[in-house]
């Protein structure tokens, strides 16, 4: 799993991380504009809510049963759900995504709402996620500078230039 930091959070949002909530009792799945675009569904329809089956049908046939089983496990166990799968987008064709979610329970322990995110992970979108090596080098450079370690700071500056992050 990626470390969650400000730089990574900004990258996720700029890469089209989509958010959703699914009301289990009503079988109404709600999503933001980014999710509507990802699933090639009109944004007003997504905002009004639709049955989960409408989205499951857009998952590739090869991934569908695995994803459905994983969602069921998350609902019954309360554990975090994480799956990578492919969506059949009407205009763009196959789109690889990563989804993370969790089913919340009420006071009686009954599952009632499932929240999560879905993010496209195709190569062009994944390329906008910052390289963790650059982030670590910048942090180490800042620390070396604060401690007055000029030699380490020089090496770290050179490393950032080599990886193209200077």
Automatic annotation (TrEMBL):
Domain PAS fold-3 as annotated: residue spans: 54-118
SUPFAM superfamilies hit by this protein: PYP-like sensor domain (PAS domain)
Listed InterPro entries: PAS-like_dom_sf (IPR035965), PAS_fold_3 (IPR013655)
Protein origin, superkingdom: Bacteria
Protein name as annotated: PAS fold-3 domain-containing protein
Lineage, uppermost ranks: Bacteria, Pseudomonadati, Pseudomonadota, Alphaproteobacteria, Hyphomicrobiales
């Amino acid at each position: 799993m990626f470390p969650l930091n400000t730089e990574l959070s900004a990258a996720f949002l700029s890469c089209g991380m989509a958010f959703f909530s699914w009301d289990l009792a009503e079988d109404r799945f709600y999503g933001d504009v980014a999710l509507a675009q990802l699933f090639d569904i009109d944004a007003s329809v997504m905002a009004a809510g639709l049955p989960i089956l409408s989205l499951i049908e857009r998952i590739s046939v090869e991934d569908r049963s695995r994803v459905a089983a994983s969602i069921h496990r998350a609902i019954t166990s309360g554990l975090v759900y994480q799956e990578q799968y492919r969506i059949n987008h009407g205009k763009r064709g196959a789109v690889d995504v990563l989804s993370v979610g969790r089913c919340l329970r009420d006071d009686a322990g009954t599952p009632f709402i499932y929240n999560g995110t879905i993010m496209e992970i195709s190569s062009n979108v994944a390329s906008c996620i910052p390289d963790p090596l650059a982030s670590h080098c910048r942090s180490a450079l800042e620390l070396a500078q604060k401690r007055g370690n000029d030699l380490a700071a020089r090496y770290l500056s050179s490393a950032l230039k080599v990886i193209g992050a200077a």
